[in-house]
């Protein structure tokens, strides 16, 4: 049986040095910032973190899941197929 979305999120969190969370919570800004760092997507870290949509779009673009980085079209949370692509990219790096 395949991994659930919650299991994939936690595997990604652990892979980027964050902690596992119970239930099915979405990624926090800090989780996404760590993920950006892991895939090589540079974000401005002076002061506040960028919006989640911007970081999600950058991550998907950086791992080659989408051709163009577009925060306006970024999903409100990663879908299961996106999570699988992210974990594969993180494990390769």
Could you please describe the fold and organization of this structure?
With 93 residues, the protein is mostly helical. It has one domain (5-92). Helices cover 49% and strands 0% of the residues. It contains four helices and no strands. The protein has helices at residues 5-15, 29-39, 52-62, 80-92. α1 (5-15) packs parallel to α4 (80-92). The termini are far apart.
Write the layout of secondary structure elements.
Elements: H1 5-15, H2 29-39, H3 52-62, H4 80-92
- Which percent bin holds the helix content? 40-55%
Number of strands: 0
Oligomer: single chain
By DSSP (H or I, 4+ residues per run), the number of helices equals 4
Mean pLDDT equals 91
Biggest β-sheet description:
none
Q: How would the global form be characterised?
A: globular
Which structural category do the helix and sheet elements fall into? mainly alpha
Q: Return residue spans where pLDDT drops below 50 for at least 5 consecutive residues.
A: none
Which percent band covers the strand fraction?
Answer: under 5%
Helix/strand order, N-terminal first: HHHH
Rg result:
12 Å
| End-to-end gap | 26 Å
Number of domains: 1
């Amino acid at each position: 049986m395949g991994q659930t979305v919650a299991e994939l999120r936690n595997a990604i969190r652990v892979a980027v040095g964050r902690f596992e969370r119970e239930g099915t919570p979405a990624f926090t800004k800090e989780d996404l910032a760590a993920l950006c760092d892991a895939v090589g997507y540079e974000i401005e870290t002076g002061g506040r973190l960028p919006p989640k949509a911007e970081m999600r779009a950058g991550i998907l673009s950086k791992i080659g899941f989408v051709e163009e980085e577009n925060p306006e079209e970024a999903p409100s949370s990663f879908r299961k197929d996106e999570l699988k692509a992210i974990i594969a990219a993180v494990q390769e790096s």
